[in-house]
Design a protein that fits this description.
Its main location: secreted. This is Adiponectin. The chain has about 240 residues and is mainly beta. It has a domain at about 110-235: Sandwich (Jelly Rolls), CATH 2.60.120.40. About 10% of the residues lie in helices and about 30% in strands. Strands 1, 2, 3, 4, 5, 6, 7, 8, 9 and 10 form a ten-stranded antiparallel beta sheet that branches. The N and C termini lie far apart (about 175 Å).
């Protein structure tokens, strides 16, 4: 029996897609299988390190922490070198004039006198009548005594020319001898006798020089070229 040609053509068209799908499924290998009609290549080398990335943006400041405990004080450091002097600053304006103060009282008491008589009498105050300085008149030329007007510490000194006989002289304070000086005269010569002392005096105290002993011990001498002097001055007053 003969089949029409048109029928065969239609049958081929229906069967062809099915066969193609089946063939395609059989040809594709499963990649999970060890043998899938292909062979895997050798592992590749590790790649190079990449370039560093860019810095990120600064983050926001966190909250301020609590104050920590004070640490132990360290040792004192060495003194630094003195720096160079700075430049002179501008000159300031003159100040206002101050109030006028009370004048300070200056304590003064001093004298310096010399002998004019050749041989003073013994056992009485020697009267020095040649005045070198006696501005406050605290030395009395009529009595030969210095009278204290300002309480304090005084310095007294005497320098006497000795001639013709020995000299024994003493400095008195309030009828009491304080210091003694003795000079033995050498014939055909002129000697010097001297002494000095610091004394504290109260107001009204008297100080003078006096020859003591017999009359042959009053060889104090003075003329136009030889002097015998007596002096004293206030060193510092009593502030009380």
């Amino acid at each position: 029996m003969r089949v029409p040609a048109g029928f065969l053509l239609c049958l081929l068209l229906l069967v062809a897609p099915h066969c193609t799908k089946v063939g395609t499924e059989e040809v594709q290998p499963d990649p999970k299988m060890p043998c899938a009609n292909w062979m895997g290549g050798a592992p590749g080398y590790p790649g190079h390190n990449g370039l560093p990335g860019r810095d990120g943006k600064d983050g926001k400041d966190g909250q301020k922490g609590e104050k920590g405990e004070e640490g132990v004080q360290g040792p004192k450091g060495d003194q630094g070198e003195i720096g160079l002097p700075g430049r002179e600053g501008p000159r300031g304006f003159p100040g206002y004039p101050g109030q006028k103060g009370e004048g300070a009282f200056v304590y003064r008491s001093a004298f310096s006198v010399g002998l004019t008589e050749r041989a003073p009498h013994p056992n009485v105050p020697i009267r020095f009548s040649k005045i070198f300085y006696n501005e406050q008149s605290h030395y009395d030329t009529s009595t030969g005594k210095f009278v204290c007007s300002i309480p304090g510490v005084y310095y007294f000194a005497y320098h006497l020319t000795v001639y013709l006989t020995d000299v024994k002289v003493s400095l008195y304070k309030k009828d009491k001898a304080v210091i003694f000086t003795y000079d033995q005269f050498q014939k055909n010569n002129v000697d010097q006798a001297s002494g000095s002392v610091l004394l504290h005096l109260n107001a009204g105290d008297e100080v003078w020089l006096q020859v003591y002993g017999e009359g042959d011990n009053n060889g104090i001498y003075a003329d136009n070229i030889n002097d015998s002097t007596f002096m004293g001055f206030l060193l510092y007053p009593d502030l009380d």
